[in-house]
Specification:
2 helices; 3 domains; Immunoglobulin-like; 660 residues; mainly beta; Neuraminidase; disordered N terminus
């Protein structure tokens, strides 16, 4: 867990080329002076993750219109102007399967649909679409897509919970329909599966009237205009609600809800609830004793490491608490850690993605600096440890140029030569629980090299100009709920389409290239960049996924003449001085490219002694001071310690000797 020890060292985020920068952890995050302060309530996601990048719906200072931004090369880059010019309250939903973003603008009463690809984005024809809504200024609407493809918008107004429904991908909508009673309230939507059935659900937090939290669900295919079809589940709390709620799901179809209490109870300002995929609810208190504004709770999930992150305005800055999502507990005041802060400035209205995320990309947070009238952002590092040095880097069902050239590509992401007989690949046809075909590999695999398993050897040779390493006709790659699992010495270490609550149906003719690295790869539209391009296929191309993509200018030549992104030497760690030392030593390093950075001191047993930094840093030179204390401020004993400076794709270390 991140510990910000303000007395130990100062960090500034400005970097110079001729001298080491000092950093000040009274400053956490980065200002976006070109972006207006336009972030609103907890049910609003203005940042989403797609195809290996963060995307944001922001309103620039230089233009009255809203714009789509993409985070590239350590900067938010303007991609598209959206013809909506009001000071609005957008909520974005990303359909990763179809590369579509849907955004509801509650003040303008409009929905837009944006097509997004790796290299371009465009507003779809016929959009914006005007909705049958009254302008919402305090409790904005939420938008989500059901598992059957229908779109829903929810909001509360005039004493009623209201929804709008679209069956044609947002081009036309029903009039607003009052389905339940609700006083002034905030609502949030999430689609999920439970007991083998798909549902759309609405979570409600009422700020007036009965002031209760409520949860309603609708089965996919049921008429959403019939209020009787929206069934209510009893929640495990009767505490007074406020109108700040957020609800999300994980890959296993468990739901997690954050809500603000109308009245603090024993210093509990919020509640955290979990609904298991089987339908049981549990509740946990979220405590803060810090002075200053405490509001706006929201959640996100790190699926790789199984953590739930609870974000909120706490003590007038943006903070978070990290929990094991399978062993939830009450959140105490000491659990809170700052993610956006600037000395004594007041912050509010953090926006977090509703999506379940995986390691290899930091969690991005945007918020308002109310004191300075600025937008700010920060990125929280999500570390990971790979289950294996071998991974599934591509599943190609696009069939190449000759019709049957589908293949699976496996990549050695390590600097070690692998013995392939330790590995086997199992193919599960159309949702089967037992493999239809198993291939045990053979031979060896050099560092940063790959092997290809083809469905048809002759077709692959014709399409790509060299022979596949293995041929397995049972690896059909013809869509449906087909899945692939990679095993090392009998242990499942990676996969394609192996979600715990049923497999996703996908269409043949697509190329799935690994762009994100959850350890099990279960969600194919999150872990892979999917393309319907018939010529897509990268034997002989760059293997582009997070552990390697920090510096694409560094390449290595494989034995077939193809290029690979190499493991970059991004960190230049200079000798600490003095060393040996008493009472303190200076740590100097240079980052050649901006990245999330963790700077830790360990003892010789590998135990963490002091976390000096955990967060995003721009490229440049930095200097830290370790005062020979542990995370609690207690003096460390004399002896040998290990300094580690690590990014998601590089790590450097050196020995430190403390002499008392």
């Amino acid at each position: 867990m991140m510990k910000w020890i303000f007395a130990i060292f100062l960090i500034t985020l400005c970097c110079v080329q001729t001298a080491f920068a000092q950093f000040n952890l009274e400053i956490v995050g980065t200002a976006l002076p070109e972006i207006r302060t336009s972030f609103k309530k907890a049910n609003q996601s203005q940042v989403v993750f797609h195809q290996g990048h963060w995307w944001g719906i922001f309103r620039p200072v230089a233009d009255s219109n809203w714009h789509l931004y993409k985070f590239v090369d350590d900067a938010w880059q303007d991609q598209l102007s959206i013809p909506i010019a009001k000071d609005d309250q957008p909520d974005a939903f990303m359909d990763n399967t179809h590369n579509k973003m849907y955004v509801i603008f509650s003040t303008s009463n409009k929905v837009v649909r944006i097509s997004i690809s790796e290299n371009s984005s465009s507003l779809d024809s016929g959009f914006p679409v005007l909705l049958d809504m009254t302008t919402l200024s305090n409790d904005p609407a939420s938008i989500a897509r059901a598992n059957n493809g229908d779109l829903f918008v929810s909001y509360a107004q005039g004493g009623s919970l209201r929804i709008l429904h679209s069956v044609d991908d947002g081009l036309s909508w029903t009039p607003n329909i009052a389905i339940k009673q609700a006083s002034s309230a905030l609502t949030d939507l999430v689609a999920f599966k439970s007991g083998g059935q798909d549902f759309m659900s609405v979570f409600v937090g009422q700020g007036s009237g009965e002031k209760k939290f409520r949860f309603y669900k609708l089965g996919d295919g049921d008429d959403p205009t019939n209020s009787a079809n929206w069934s209510e589940e009893t929640l495990p709390t009767s505490l007074v609600s406020d109108d700040h709620v957020n609800i999300i799901k994980d890959f296993d179809q468990n739901l997690y809800a954050a809500m603000k209490l109308g009245n603090s109870v024993n210093n509990a300002k919020f509640l955290l609830m979990k609904r298991t995929f089987s339908g049981s609810w549990s509740v946990f208190n979220v405590v803060s004793t810090q002075t200053g504004n405490t509001t706006r709770p929201s959640l996100t999930i790190d699926e790789t490491n199984n953590f739930l992150y609870f974000f909120a305005t706490v003590g007038a800055i943006i903070q978070y608490a990290k929990l094991d999502k399978d062993n939830l507990r009450d959140i105490a005041n000491d659990d809170w850690q700052p993610i956006i802060k600037n000395s004594s400035d007041s912050f509010n209205n953090a926006s977090i993605s509703y999506q379940s995320l995986g390691a290899g990309n930091p969690i991005t947070v945007v918020a308002e600096n109310d004191t300075k009238g600025e937008a700010w952002y920060n990125a929280l590092d999500v570390p990971y440890t790979a289950n294996s040095d071998l991974l599934i880097s591509e599943v190609n069902s696009s069939d190449g140029s000759s019709g049957t050239a589908s293949f699976i590509e496996l990549f050695n992401l390590s600097r070690n030569t692998l013995t392939l007989s330790d590995f086997s690949v199992k193919y599960y046809d159309n949702g089967a629980t037992s493999p239809s075909t198993t291939k045990t590999l053979s031979g060896s695999l050099a560092p940063l090299d790959y092997v290809v398993i083809a469905n048809d050897a002759a077709a692959f040779q014709s399409a790509y100009g060299f022979a596949a390493d293995f041929t397995v006709t049972g690896f059909k790659l013809d869509g449906g709920e087909d899945a692939v699992l990679l095993f090392e010495n009998g242990t499942d270490v990676d996969g394609f389409n192996n979600g715990a609550d049923g497999k996703v149906s996908w269409s043949a003719g697509q190329d799935f290239q690994r762009t994100n690295f959850p350890n099990d790869g279960e969600n194919i539209f999150f872990a892979y960049l999917n393309s319907g391009t018939s010529s897509a296929g990268t034997p002989g191309g760059v293997n582009d996924f997070p552990i390697l993509k920090s510096d694409r200018s560094l390449t290595a030549i494989g034995n077939r003449g193809e290029t690979f992104a190499n493991l970059p030497a991004l960190i230049d760690l200079q000798p600490a001085y003095p060393n040996p030392f008493n009472p303190q030593t200076k740590i100097r390093f240079e980052l050649r490219q901006g990245a999330p950075v963790r700077v830790n001191v360990f003892n010789v047993a590998g135990q963490l002694v002091q976390e000096l930094h955990n967060g995003f840093l721009a490229n440049g030179r930095y200097e830290l001071t370790w005062t020979g204390t542990d995370n609690n401020g207690a003096p460390a004993a004399s002896g040998l310690y290990i300094l580690s400076v690590q990014t998601p794709s590089a790590r450097e270390s050196q020995r430190l000797i403390l002499v008392r």
